[in-house]
């Protein structure tokens, strides 16, 4: 079964950090780029980060550049999103996505609140 499962979200205070994980199964993970998206309450889903299949290229949305770091482990078939200096504006459901997987996963909720 081809799928992506996000995890690692939670409730944190402003300024704190979280690391999200995206576990892939059912396809050749290392052959595809990976993306992270997020959807804030009442808003459309937005792209925030991309990593190439070999990890050599990374791109970020301006809203997260300098605070978030995308990475991957092609042995563990897992992508990560390290999120530092979180603010209330980062509150959203976070999703990972591969061109190989048609459906969106359930995502993982990140809430930043004091």
Report on this model:
There is one protein chain. With 114 residues, this protein is mostly beta strands. Helix content is 0%, strand content 47%. The chain contains no helices and 10 strands. The chain has strands spanning 3-7, 10-12, 18-25, 34-39, 46-51, 58-60, 68-73, 78-83, 92-97, 108-112. Strands 2-10-9-4-5-6 form a 6-stranded mixed β-sheet, with no helix packed on it. A 4-stranded antiparallel β-sheet has the order 1-3-8-7, with no helix packed on it. A hairpin with a 4-residue loop joins strand 7 (68-73) and strand 8. The mean pLDDT is 97.
Element layout with pairings:
Elements: E1 3-7, E2 10-12, E3 18-25, E4 34-39, E5 46-51, E6 58-60, E7 68-73, E8 78-83, E9 92-97, E10 108-112
Parallel strand pairs: 2-10
Antiparallel strand pairs: 1-3, 3-8, 4-5, 4-9, 5-6, 7-8, 9-10
């Amino acid at each position: 079964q081809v799928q992506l499962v996000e995890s690692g979200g939670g409730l944190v205070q402003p300024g704190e950090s979280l690391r999200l994980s995206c576990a892939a199964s059912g396809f050749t993970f290392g052959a595809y780029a990976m993306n992270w998206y997020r959807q804030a309450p009442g808003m459309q889903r937005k792209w925030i980060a991309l990593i190439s299949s070999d990890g050599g290229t990374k791109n970020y949305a301006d809203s997260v550049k300098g605070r978030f770091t995308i990475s991957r482990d092609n042995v563990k078939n897992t992508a990560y999103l390290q999120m530092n200096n979180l603010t209330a504006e980062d509150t959203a459901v976070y999703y990972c996505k591969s061109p190989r997987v048609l459906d969106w996963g359930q995502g993982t909720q990140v809430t930043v609140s004091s």
